[in-house]
Design goal:
Strand content of chain A: under 5%
Oligomer: homotrimer
Shape of chain A: globular
Radius of gyration of chain A: 17 Å
Number of helices of chain A: 9
Helix content of chain A: over 70%
């Protein structure tokens, strides 16, 4: 739920400087928070998670309204950084939780858990950016999606080769994503040159 | 069906000034008309409505071709206004009809009927705008989605607290959306300042 | 599979000049190759094809990495043309194969097989272009989607009126798409004026 709130707030803030009304801000907040998981569940063909537990939507709505009316506070550098850190916690938890869900369903093992883990973590943000006509993070050099990929791959390898250590594996997977992302935020790390291309 | 035709025509007109061929115009017309309902049915995990009644697609194709070849007529101010009014009828009927469908399935009550009502009404237009690289209505100050939200919330409240009056509730819900939207078109109303933010 | 590889490589090349990292390039490659078929299977409500045969994803990943590190070769005019030709083969095979799949399921005959044939062939490229903020092919005058439409309509007509000749029909359908597209590449054909509109 902390991840949901963080996703919502970063979602609202990401579009606020373009000028937005309360309704659209709430839509953007909801999409950022639940968009990735919705696509995951549609691909898995299981009931959409927020149709079973509507608290995800309630929390998204309340956090959107709160973020909308207190957005001046968030523009301060310190609060903004705190949100980036919460967002890092969000992608870590969402990604690893999704791997666990997809693995438990035996869906397209071993590739699909990784793909859908990454999709769940970054998918909502991608839809928001497309709707707001912002550059999507896929086209930026920010070190954002790669940590999610590494954490999900790690967790899938644990589930494959050391299934008895799945809980420890999930925890370390979360820490891998959160740790790399946190370092990237603190030190303004970008994607290194040897895996970056511009022709 | 009148709503479908209006959606198609506004869909084609929305992209015509950018230069478009008959095929793409038809694709845009179909997407505007059935895109929202398609996403709704995919989330609900029920058969897509146009796979059962293909007339929605036939009507979309015919209306797209007609709009394409008669688009010079639509650029006239009067006809354009008539289309906006038909479009207002479209979002009213599509939104309330979707609430009714989602409620009938018992899906994520009470939040999901509202969410999917709004999605059905505006989703097709959002996809069209993204594909045509137009500013989506979420980023504009036009009073467009908020009336849909109000009408859907009203209808859900009737279904919850006064289920015996569901028919009257649906009718009033349609009138709420249509009435506010019509007033907004006539008086060029935009989203009021107290729910508008630009940081 | 040749079609998959071609789709991946054109997908990676399409975004490489904007500057992209290995991860994002791979995501773009995968989306270009499997995005259309994924949307088709979600609409059909059948298991996503790559969850059953993960080789589509493995091939996409390997081809993406190969394209990423050898992209300088692809910028040469000759190799680029070869890729366009492979891509033409890709849309031909993907489109007709999708018509066959949808027809076999008896889904929304006769319209849905055509719609989903076109969606399968061009859908992945549309998502890629939206995520990379490129102009989608729907807004360009390139003769790309119309050949797919013609081939799919032809194949559906054979399946309807001459079902005994379905194999020959599929083959001719592929040749129609591939032939028109190849001619368009060789002679730089664009959409003719009588089906093009700009108001």
């Amino acid at each position: 739920m902390a991840g949901t709130v963080a996703f919502v707030v970063t979602g609202v803030l990401a579009v606020a400087h373009k000028g937005i009304d309360l309704f659209s801000a709430t839509v953007m907040g909801i999409i950022t928070a639940v968009g990735g998981g919705t696509m995951r569940d549609m691909i898995l063909d299981v009931p959409i998670f927020w149709s079973i537990d509507q608290n995800y939507i309630w929390v998204s709505i309340i956090a959107s309204i709160a973020a909308f009316y207190s957005s001046s506070a968030f523009s301060q550098k310190k609060v903004n950084k705190m949100m980036l850190i919460l967002d890092a916690a969000g992608i870590s938890l969402f990604g690893i939780e999704a791997v666990d869900k997809v693995w438990g369903l035996g869906f397209g093992i071993p590739l699909a858990p990784v793909l859908l883990g990454v999709l769940t973590a970054i998918g909502g943000g991608l839809i928001r950016d497309v709707l707001a006509d912002r550059q999507t993070l896929l086209m930026s050099r920010t070190l954002y999606a790669i940590p999610v990929l590494l954490g999900c791959v790690f967790f899938v390898m644990i589930l494959t080769y050391l299934p008895d250590y799945n809980l420890a594996g999930a925890l370390i997977g979360v820490l891998i994503i959160f740790g790399i992302r946190l370092t990237a935020i603190q030190k303004n790390l970008t994607v290194p040159d040897w895996i970056y291309l511009k022709i």
